[in-house]
Amino acid sequence: MTSIGIYGSLGRMGRTVADVIGDAGATLAGGVDRQGDCRPLAHEADVLVDFSIPSALPEHLEAARAAGTPIVIGTTGLSAKHHQLIDEASRDVAVLQTGNTSLGVTLLSILVREAAERLGPDWDIEIVEMHHRHKVDAPSGTALLLGEAAAGGRNTQLSEVRVDGRAGLVGARTEGTIGFASLRGGSVIGDHQVIFATEGERIELGHRGEDRVIFAKGAVRAALWLANQPPGRYRMGDVLGL
Fold first, then answer.
1. Other CB atoms closer than 10 Å to residue 68's CB: what's the count?
2. Which residues does the UniProt record annotate as the domain Dihydrodipicolinate reductase C-terminal (predicted)?
3. Is 135 among the residues known to form the active site?
């Protein structure tokens, strides 16, 4: 059976991934959390799953490359430098990076991309997300994933059209922009809504995460798929053949 190692093993997601590995027909190779040496696990596991923190990612990628072990990255709050490191690592090992491992969100991103492509620039796009009070990054990785999908449907870069958290006298909405609003409170696992609005009508595409286990199951499915892939950079859509 495929053995899966977990980086960030004591966090909410790390513990949940460990709970579902057996049900997927895989085995747990072990886990590493803060201050732990990540290198031995990279050699012991057939594939790694990372739900740690952005500052730990460079070391985890280095360990995966040295061991030749594929790695699924579900850590959010990544910078452009992190993505550069992921690109570099993907030359040597299979790397799947995503802002959300839910299969439902994966399909939602495909629908958002298609809607953005077909509806045209006179439809405004706004993304609203809500998470529990302990989440430290905003917008969420999932919201950015959906924003990338929308921007891709319009053949543009999200960085060129992104607008975060409007406040004050910001003026009229600029055509073609993609707006983000982030809500935090309670124990919300993750709610995301993509709103397409034009004169006289509105389309709303959304997803509500009701149990953290959906992300864990998706991560394990991605890990089992990635374990058999050649070096390269992959996304959750590849796991579903989308």
1. 12
2. 104-240
3. yes
